[in-house]
Amino acid sequence: MFDPASPPVWIFAYGSLIWRPGFCYAERARGFVRGWSRRFWQGSTDHRGLPGAPGRVLTVTPEASGSCWGIAYRLDECTRDATLQALDERERGGYERYVVDFHCNDGARSGSWPALMYVAGPDNPNYLGPAPLASIAEQVQRAHGPSGSNREYLLELHAMLLTLGIEDDHIQGLAALLRPSAPPPTEQAQGDAEERPHVRSA
Ligand code: SIN
């Protein structure tokens, strides 16, 4: 239930929530969180891959010298609870909510305040962990799931980071390794995706 006295809720986005938030927000700001790095280390069997043929999607991993740049969204108060519920559902493949300090760096706007961030840690069953960049790119090139191709996930993110003026070596390295076009999904993968219940895309 909406409580006008409660503090605003911000979500810090570093992956698909940057380019496809899929929820109403009151405002957004560019900035970063310290001590975290963005990595394609999380397996996806519900959005960008399938059970037995997982895709690779983003999580953040603690790294003392790292900073992860992205977008923070202030949730619309009237739809806040429903949005959080929908996000928990969308990120249910292994992510947990963390509270982090968001550092705003958006034109003339600065400052820092708490935000929620979805983190898929090494203990979740879909976690894949580090791998050589070429192997990650190969897996991304191949994988496809109910929300679309894994390739789209990477390329949309890469394009949005460029638009936002955010440099990320991990993402740039992977985008450079992708071949021009992905093979079409097999009939089997397509059939499986159609039989699965509708999920919000990520
Ligand atoms: C995020 O975008 O912040 C979480 C990971 C994802 O959904 O790709």
- Evaluate the radius of gyration: 17 Å
Total helices: the number is 6
Distance between the termini: 26 Å
Globally, the shape reads globular
SSE inventory with pairings:
Layout: E1 10-13, H1 16-19, E2 25-44, E3 55-75, H2 80-90, E4 95-106, E5 109-120, H3 133-142, E6 144-145, E7 148-149, H4 150-164, H5 169-177, H6 187-195
Characterization of the model:
The protein has 202 residues and is an alpha+beta fold. It has one domain (10-195): Hypothetical upf0131 protein ytfp (Roll). The protein contains 6 helices and 7 strands. The strands form 2 sheets. A 5-stranded mixed barrel has the order 1-3-2-4-5. Strands 6-7 form a two-stranded antiparallel ribbon. It is globular and about 50 Å long. Bound molecules: succinic acid (SIN). The site of succinic acid has 11 residues, from helix 1 and strand 3.
Which labels suit this protein?
202 residues, alpha+beta, Hypothetical upf0131 protein ytfp, two-stranded antiparallel sheet, 6 helices, 7 strands, globular, binds succinic acid
